[in-house]
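[recover] target loaded
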């Protein structure tokens, strides 16, 4: 066995501080499914267009604890503006984040956290649509890094950041 100084082996309580990230909880904050034209919509030859609105927001809950909310609004409409279904979902998570500068923290909250939440939102949307008696709806992956980069670029050009 190698001899180590006592305080190095046991730790001094002053461990090296570095960035840390821990997912605390993932949950559905709000959910809605509407099928305004049911059951008539099932009797027609309906070819839907899917419109997806995606948004994220975050808030500090307490020191180093953040809530991130991924909001999806999906409308499936067809010819003649027949709405088959509307899904609105707020998939949220609580994250413990330390050791990041402001820029890194904003990137984490606007990109990394929503990226973790999206598969849960995707599964929830698919389940709701199936329970509404519609064909499965598997949303395509979303590049939250690219969305964040676009938002930062708009902000630098004098626009608003909508992440």
């Amino acid at each position: 066995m190698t001899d180590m100084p006592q305080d190095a082996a046991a730790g001094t309580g002053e461990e090296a501080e570095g960035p840390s990230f821990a997912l605390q909880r993932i949950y559905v904050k709000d959910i809605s499914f509407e099928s305004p034209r049911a059951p008539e919509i099932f009797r027609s030859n309906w070819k839907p267009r899917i419109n997806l609105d995606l948004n994220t927001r975050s808030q500090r809950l307490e020191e180093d604890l953040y809530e991130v909310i991924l909001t999806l609004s999906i409308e499936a409409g067809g010819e003649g503006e027949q709405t088959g279904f509307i899904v609105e979902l707020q998939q949220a998570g609580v994250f413990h984040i330390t050791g990041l500068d402001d820029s890194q923290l904003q990137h984490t909250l606007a990109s990394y956290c929503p990226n973790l939440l999206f598969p849960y939102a995707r599964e929830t949307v698919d389940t709701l649509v199936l329970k509404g008696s519609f064909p499965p709806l598997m949303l395509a992956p979303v590049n939250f890094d690219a969305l964040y980069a676009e938002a930062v670029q708009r902000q630098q050009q004098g626009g608003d950041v909508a992440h």
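[recover] notes: Residues 102-131 form the longest helix (30 residues).
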